From TrEMBL:
GO cellular component, one term: cytosol
Co-factor requirement: pyridoxal 5'-phosphate
Alphabetized GO MF terms: identical protein binding; L-tyrosine-2-oxoglutarate transaminase activity; pyridoxal phosphate binding
Domain Aminotransferase class I/classII large: 27-392
Protein name: Aminotransferase
A Pfam match: Aminotran_1_2
Native species: Limnohabitans parvus II-B4
BP-aspect Gene Ontology terms: L-phenylalanine biosynthetic process from chorismate via phenylpyruvate
Enzyme class: transferase
EC numbers, comma separated: 2.6.1.-
Domain of life: Bacteria
UniProtKB keywords: Aminotransferase, Pyridoxal phosphate, Transferase
Assembly mode: Homodimer.
Gene3D superfamilies given in the database record: Aspartate Aminotransferase, domain 1, Type I PLP-dependent aspartate aminotransferase-like (Major domain)
Amino acid sequence: LFSAVEMAPRDPILGLNEQYNADTNPNKVNLGVGVYFDDNGKLPLLQCVQAAEKTMMATPTARGYLPIDGIVAYDNAVKALVFGAESDVVKSGRVSTVQAIGGTGGLKIGADFLKKVSPNAKVLISDPSWENHRAIFVNAGFEVSSYAYYDAEKRGVNFDGMLASLNAAAAGTIVVLHACCHNPTGYDITDAQWDQVIAVVKAKSLTAFLDMAYQGFGHGIAEDGAVIGKFVAAGLNIFVSTSFSKSFSLYGERVGALSVVASDKEEASRVLSQLKIAIRTNYSNPPIHGGAVVAAVLNNPELRAQWEQELAEMRVRIKAMRQKLVDSLKAAGVKQDMSFITTQIGMFSYSGLTKDQMVRLRSEFGVYGTDTGRMCVAALNSKNIDYVCASIAKVI
Ligand code: LMR
């Protein structure tokens, strides 16, 4: 049965974790996967999460099946966070939100549903994009190609190219957009550029699928989320996948969501019924714990304020690390101007290092980043940064 089964390549991101874990270099540093570590190199367990869990543990509950679309209080909290509790779109019942297994789960449920709604549509992802975007939509049966995004020479977004790609797309094309903190490049488009993208999406009847995995890591929760309001104001039917892996440091709980904006309440209930089929046929219904924790935090004003504070601390520390990275690279003897690192945003820096340089960083120094040159700035700290910079200086 399996004699012809080919060995699949290692996952370009999570596969690095396996390699990192097996590495015996005592100085090894994992800048591969997008995970935030504090200045002591520890994965944080947020205070707001601990407080919510303490309350939950005080009154233990049995674990029956959740509804297919998840915890109602969670879905409503996600709607409020993503669209605004008082927004017309939420109040008029036009948003269908389902709990999903991480942001990846939200993307997959959305992709499966879209395959039913628009079976012949093509999918466009940014060039480059998060490695898993292509695989998720290909596995859902779509043909995936890319729209122009990164301009390596100018170190920024090739916005004219992006608009040209979108303008050239056939009506009905599904466009996967990074709502904030573009992964992997760290370059976002401006507010005014979003307006232009939205105008093209509308004029060309494209379907926008916004991946919101890093809300709060750019400029702030509301600031990063504002782009969603722009799409809604334009009267578009959109998809939004949400992840709380990073913003709640709940990676292993797989807490995410998918929200779909329909044209009216009745349409939204039909959409929801189809999302439930997609969930039921993939994994039946979501797990309880992570969603219950996030709902408890988002729905309690005190815990919510604490979360915002803790998220802000992560955001500020990453920004400080960007500056430190620029300074330490210079101090380590890197001649080229690396100040572009501070104009990037979110967890990642697209360093511009080649695949060969990234492989050398791993094999000679135990410094792990992706082959594309992406490094997770959120895993740098005051203890490992000099070693990382000295290593980079040796391969540059
Ligand atoms: C990343 O890009 O490193 C994260 O989103 C983790 C993942 O699942 O790839």
